[in-house]
Amino acid sequence: MKIILPMAGFGTRLRPHTWDVPKPLVPLAGKTMIDHVLDRLLPLEPEEVICIVGYLGEQIEEYIKGRYSVPVRFVVQPEMRGQADAIALTRDVVAGDALVMFADTIFEADFSPLRGLRARGIDGAIFVKEIDDPRRFGIAILDAEGYATQLVEKPENPTSNLALVGIYYFADMGALYDAIDTLIASGKALKGEYYLADAVQLLIDRGQRLKTFPVPVWEDCGKPEEMLQTNRYLLAREYMGDGRPILHGDSVIIPPVALDPSATIGRSIVGPHVSIGAGATLSGVVIADSIVGDAVSLANTALTGSIISAGAAIHGTEQRLNLGATSSVRHVTASE
Question: Which residue intervals define the domain Nucleotidyl transferase in the entry (predicted)?
Fold first, then answer.
């Protein structure tokens, strides 16, 4: 089985953090977003991982090639024409079955039911999560046996609370490519983009049996507030301690915290739910529920619910911030 990871988007909802760093490389709980995704996929021992890149794709290629030994191929989407168009670009390198997953999703899922799926007369799988308000997402409508009968993108009045989490398995990628060709030829696009859900609906209309499987955990990373929630989840998931504060020199760490060994902390209180990147420096800082990138400098400040990208410097008073790379905030006194 091959794995296809579309990741060519601009990450506009995460700006300013994605102006000069592609979304898959944004820091999250001590790693990058793509690290967390691959941690969950590589145990499947894929034949090959195919990354569909575009904006700042060379950074993604350099990062993955420098850290992973898995067979990996990079396909460039030159124009942002949506998910389905991106997947169509892999037709020359994928035959047979494949797992397709959007790379900005953090999940926990059981993939064991995929083994022997085709032998049981099932053409593919759609992973879903039951949520209270699915209007921001695509939804799946099922029959009594759990097979998808209809996929609806961002419904105003949803008739199902099963959100599409962006993970699909197709036993025959050739059939999906044919459906995408039909979709693009029809011109059915939203704001110039062709959605995978519309191509999958064509497969369903053509008689394919696509079974749905629930996931217990699905954390989106599309917006800053969602990034912070996912950071909290991942830090808590990996933490095995009793929650007691930890002395760190003249500072206090309140778990769970991801602290890079090269970061320097002095006279600070860090945590809970804080991720601090390589080479970051904190002096006289109180910080909680935040993500601090590489080489960030913080001094004499208090932060909560903040994302500070690489190279930023904040020296000042209590505030709530959402800063991009190389930004700088300085407290100005009355005399200045």
Answer: 7-234
Cβ atoms 125, 117 nearer than 8 A: yes
pLDDT tens digits along 78-96: 998 989 999 999 999 999 9
221, 262, 272, 324 from 297: Cα distances, Å? 25, 13, 19, 13
> Could you tell me how many helices (H) and strands (E) the chain has, helices first?
6, 26
The span from the CA of 23 to the CA of 15, in Å, is 9
Last residue of one domain, picked from the residues 225, 260, 280: 225
Instruction: Taking the CA atoms of 33, 39, 44 and 47 in sequence, report the sign of the dihedral they define.
Output: positive
Beta bridge partners of 75: 52
Task: Give kind and range of the element (H or E) at residue 300.
Answer: strand 297-304
Q: Which residue has the higher pLDDT, 185 or 334?
A: 185
- Angle at 166 (CA atoms; ends 163, 169), nearest 5 degrees: 110
Rounded to the nearest angstrom, the gap between the alpha carbon of residue 218 and the centroid of all alpha carbons in its chain is 10
Residue 249 and residue 207 share a domain: no
For the chain, the average pLDDT equals 90
Domain containing 258: what range?
Answer: 243-330
pLDDT at 322 over 90: no
Joined tokens for residue 245: 């504060």
d(CA 207, CA 219): 31
Q: 166 and 24 in one domain? A: yes
Instruction: Say how far apart CA 187 and CA 81 lie, in whole Å.
Output: 11
Q: How far apart are CA 304 and CA 320, in angstroms?
A: 6
Task: Please answer whether residues 313 and 295 qualify as being in contact, where contact means their C-beta atoms are separated by less than 8 angstroms.
Answer: no
Predicted local distance difference test score (pLDDT) of residue 247: 95
